Amino acid sequence: MTRMLRAAIGSGLITCLFMPTAAFAAASPGNGKTQITWYGNAAFKVTTPAGHVLLIDPWITNPRNTTGKADLAALDKVDLILISHGHADHIGDAVAIAKRTGAKLVSTHDLGTALVAYAGYPAKDVSIDGQGDFGGEFSFFGGEVRITLIPAVHSSGVEVPRGENAPPAVEYGGNPSGFLITVRGGPTIYHTGDTDVYGDMKLIPMHHHVDVMLTCIGNHFTMGPDGAALAVQLVQPDVVIPMHFKGLPGFTGTPEAFRAALEKHHAKARLMVLSVHQTVEF
Ligand SMILES: [Zn+2]
Fold first, then answer.
1. Which residues are placed with Cβ below 5 angstroms of ligand 1, an ion?
2. What is the pLDDT along the chain (282 residues), one digit of tens a residue?
3. Nearest-5° Cα angle at 147, 143 to 151
4. Which pTM does this prediction carry?
5. What is the whole-number distance in angstroms between the Cα of residue 22 and the centre of ligand 1?
6. 267 C-alpha vs ligand 1 centroid, how far in Å?
7. Residue 90 alpha carbon to ligand 1 centre in Å
8. What is the distance between the alpha carbons of residues 266 and 103, in angstroms, rounded to a whole number?
9. Distance between CA atoms of 98 and 66, rounded to whole angstroms?
């Protein structure tokens, strides 16, 4: 994977902070590459070389996505939906997408149970194939995609509306997670979910070389830029892409501060800052 990544870097696919959008390659499905598209917040689409489509924390209609409704309507083929925890900005539009596409849910078993019971995720699409717990690995599409749940230091209550004049009920949503996604013939991707930095992140590179780390940097609800830079030191990815910043109250972390923190901590990963809708290939 590293060799492939270097080739991508050499070809100009990967650029540093604030390079113009046009420097990134346009998406062209079926070219043997894995495509990663950011929709804002923690929402990403991953398209594999074989054309399988994964959505992670798919809040497509988040406030930073000015064409959210159109993007949502355009998502007509989705194979898997990965949800890291029960907060509304991560469940996002998952239920609507699942009802339309039959996408299978990948999450902790407890969260899956809660999403069926309280959020309306179709029960037929929540099965043992994508439901488990930490330490295990799920395999999809004959092994083209393998997914491991990674712990996250956060919370995972699922808010259930109780009418206009009542506060929502908060139902148990299990332990929050991140995801390690290994694509055959493609990159290994670590999506942190919402988390603080924690020492056991250093175990991740003992199991897997991470090509691309998608890390929260927003502060207030998660680690901010400094904590995220420490996390990068522990995980040792080749490329790091910040997410979960701007657009919601309390989000003070910025890519500029993240870049400074990476330099301060001498983190070696290459920083890529995506704009909403941007697609990069590995
Ligand atoms: Zn959260």
1. 87, 194
2. 444 444 343 333 333 343 333 334 444 556 899 999 999 999 999 999 999 999 999 999 999 999 999 999 999 999 999 999 999 999 999 999 999 999 999 999 999 999 999 999 999 999 999 999 999 999 999 999 999 999 999 999 999 999 999 999 999 999 999 999 999 999 999 999 999 999 999 999 999 999 999 999 999 999 999 999 999 999 999 999 999 999 888 899 999 999 999 999 999 999 999 999 999 999
3. 160
4. 0.90
5. 32
6. 26
7. 7
8. 40
9. 22
